[in-house]
Give the backbone structure.
Amino acid sequence: MAGASIETTLELWASSLRDVKVRIRPLFGQERVAASAGRFLDGLLGNEPRKTGWMRAEAAGDPGPWRQQAILGRGRWNADALRDIVRDYALETLADEDAVLVIDETGFLKQGKASCGVARQYTGSAGKITNCQIGVFASYVSRHGHGFIDRALYLPQAWTDDPARMRAAHVPDDLRFATKPQIARRMIACAITAKVPFSFVAADSVYGTGEIEAALRKAGKGYVLGVAANHVFRSWGKKQLVGGTAAKIVQNLPKNAWRRLSAGEGTKGPRLHNWAYLELADLDAGEYNNALRPSSPHGAPRARP
């Protein structure tokens, strides 16, 4: 905050944190539980390098971790309602009609087998198959900034096919296996239902095209979705016919089709990639919704380092 004193800045932060605690208060039936939730939030924002139950309790002045552990375990409150509060709070500052909804996942490395959803699976945070949990996240990105507005834990079939293990981890009885693209589609549908303003969805090749692409077309939203190198494209209604796998199409493009652009600053400077664009078809955006514009180009952008 330019020009503000440290004392003024700290007071604004403290005032904002008090406001957040007031917003989440209705989620908790008892005042003492709401107070524990507030101290839990304080602990998460603290400067302890590891946010264990004991460390959070010590920072909060509690004799032990039981009160804060109860928030995540025995406490009964609606996590999706908290998600909605966080989303609405973020949109007060970040909302923009040209915003992008970014879907991505990350892994949380684990040692044991009891943590909900833990399994040997690939995670980009480790760059290999390892013992971890996987979370799928939706981030709202606009010219004003960015923030997370949705989340879901991915449960492998080794978990959902084992009722005893699910019960031991207190997983709701009605939860069934869902692929990561299915989780992403639910998040997109949730954002649209909540009238979150955005123009595009961006996601990597884990989420492909398929059902997500169809859902976004139906909603009149743009999208930039990664695909695997063996994904097959076919153009139609165009003078220049395009066909084959993504890898083959890229290999056959002339050098002058490429433009070198930066994807932003990284730890080692600009993240430069070569981009090319091929238009495959003119899609009728009004196919599902007459209020949408008559047509929009359907293209196959390509990027390579």
Observations:
- Residues 228-304 form one domain.
- The chain is about 35% helix and 25% strand.
- The two ends are 36 Å apart (CA to CA).
- The chain has a mean pLDDT of 87.
